Amino acid sequence: MIASRYSIRILVLFFVLISQTVFAQSAKQKTNAPSPNSASATFLKYFQQGFSMKLLMTNYLTLGVQAFEGSPPSDERCGYIPGMEYPVGSCYDHLYSAGPVIGGVVDGVRRVSEAYNPNTGRGYFIPSEKDEFRNTIWVTSATDSSIVETGYYKKQPNKRFVDDDKDGIIDEDALDGEDNDNDWSSIADDIGSDGVADSSEHGCRGGYDPITNPDPAFDNWNPANYDSCHPTHSGKFPNMRSREIYTQGNGIPDHGEPHVDEDYAAFSDQDVYISATDTSPSLPTSHSRLGIKIIQNSYAWKSDIFDGILPIKYEFVNIGGKTIRDVYLGFFVDADVGLAQQNDGGYFDSLRTIFVANPSERNSTPFGFTLLETPVALESLKYTLQWYDFVPPCGGTLDEDLYACMSCEAFGGVHCIDENTFPTNTDVRFLFSFGPFRELKPGDTISTTVAFLSGTRLSAGSQSLKAHAEQAIKLWGRGWRQPLAPPSPCLEATSSDEGIKLQWNLEKPGCLNPLDTWDDSNKIAESFEPNHWRRSNPPAGATRGGRIFEGFRLYRAEEQNGTRTPFTFLREFDVADDIFGFNVGLQTEFTDSFARKGHTYWYAVTSFSIPDMTIITRPLSNGGVLYDTLYSEQYESSIEDNATKVYHSFRPSESLGEVLVVPNPYRGSEYYVNGDGFEGLEREWTPYKRMVRFIHLPSKATIRIYTIAGEVVATFTHDESAGDTEGQHDFHLFTESGRPLANGIFVFTVESEYGKQIGKFVIAR
Fold first, then answer.
1. Measuring CA to CA, which residue among 69, 62, 66 is closest to residue 14?
2. What is the mean pLDDT of the chain?
3. What are the backbone dihedrals phi and psi of residue 18, each rounded to the nearest 5 degrees, phi first?
4. pTM of whole model > 0.85?
5. Least buried of 34, 279, 390, 736, by fewest C-beta within 10 Å?
6. Concatenated DSSP letters for 688-715?
7. Cα–Cα distance measured from residue 129 to residue 113, given in angstroms and rounded to the nearest whole number
8. Helix count and strand count (H, E) for the chain
9. Each residue's pLDDT tens digit, 155-176
């Protein structure tokens, strides 16, 4: 089905190129005519961003498969690379194409520049042609501690809030391969794309020699010489005049060299930076340029907390010479969820989230788009959501029409959110825009952050698209910092006559106190008075947030036949503050009096936090503002952090006559599988698992077993100093010669420092 779909699109492209006209399908108008950007795309590059969800993006700021004119790159796994895949591994596609758009008024004239227009397939943002042979998609990571590939060559990733280049400014560089802070020196820093000085290189002629081999790698820019180590396919040696190939001494700040991007604030597990402008001379003269550079920073994390969430920050920079007034920003989206003709569209108003779903395809996952941030309060903006129908104003091609759509002037400023005509059972496209931003002067920037989303369902459950939209808003409110859970306390478990005694939050070397956990981003913790224990005596440098610890949770599991059962919840102890939880008060010890002797248990104590909150504001039609509060869950430390195994032993006897045999009588058969784990599960039972247990044995003793006639059946020694289990010993009902014991009464003696005890037990099959 996928291959057929794209074969059709390639066929459409063929007819378009022949006729030089737009080929429109009555049910689905997908135009693949060469767009202004792709027509000049001699160095089109793409990247799949994300982990749990992958979004295909190009250096033309176009998202999805349309940037490849209906023929996306092939992929062994899926046949082609999906425009947006969720979950990863499913090959389920969600996105034909999408891109940012900006409109404004320049000298009284309305202009619009688009990265993608669903009606024409065109786009007006092109990366710098000078980077034809460079990687114009830059990638780095905040969490990878090793040398990583960051675009042009390998270098250490940068860290947030750190002055990496020691210039007194923190995080001042953009991830763009340029000398943004003017500290790059061609004499000291122009070291070449391999990042290795000539003296340390080794090439086809061996190592460095200042006279005979001064450039072992042949990577120095030297237009007077020829590269004798890298012949062309025809066997000729190329001249070393290309500044893009021979990078050492080329006089260009190349990405990765010292003092290029050296103080970038790496943000996520995978930061991807792309930029393009609408000022390229290769654009048609019919397009009235706004003079805009768009910087697209996308972020992805491996944590499950970010499942189905991929945020992108866009910066719209006025690089022209004129002020742009009454600016509107927006996004055109053509979301093909599975079979596009079966799509439905809708809007979660409270979350500013547009969605497209495919209710006809079982197990399909929806597409979502959420607005998270603008430079001004979101409730102060005007929003336009129009479903695309290929007619002006929104489906037009003239800047005047497109601006009228983005600003909602075309609709008289009413019904800007087209909630009453949600598309159903069709190919869904939409324009979502917001503004106005009163002016954008030369050199000024307007930033906005959005998130692309998916989920296992549309709105039901914690893994739904709607839940992921709420999670994206919460995480954005935290500055994309992952929510903190207080560390688990240190835990000790000991067996006693009363039960298994548990003690935690012990003050021992290496033990952290969960009550001290401070979260800079938690707004509830920050709401307490400065003298409250949650806010008083903050850690060095902490000015926001507060202590988030709320309580402990106690769990227990049993071990049966060497396998641990799942943990079950036993108790919760929380701060008695009359605000969160049960307010039972904190406790740091507990005795499990229901534990059965002769059994192995596992215990764990976790720490959990107070919730966090994010306030959502949205305008009402009467001019008022509605405030919604999203509360995050209370995060909990891992149950495995201090999982502790303890055997609940029988107390060793310290006087004569305390030893017992259990069970007594022993009713042995293959169906005798007691619930206490003596002989294991019935399906695993064999006659060799029959056993009785001697309990309350002295720490050292000799046990003899006799028939009722006085014949010795077996003799064994119990010695805890040699590693035997405290207070007990198991007897598997075989004689010393290996024969199973028959039914009957058996006598046992226990000889120890306390004397000799005589008893009996019965085997009754």
1. 69
2. 85
3. -70, -45
4. no
5. 736
6. GG--EEEES--SEEEEEEEETTS-EEEE
7. 19
8. 6, 43
9. 555 777 788 778 888 888 888 8
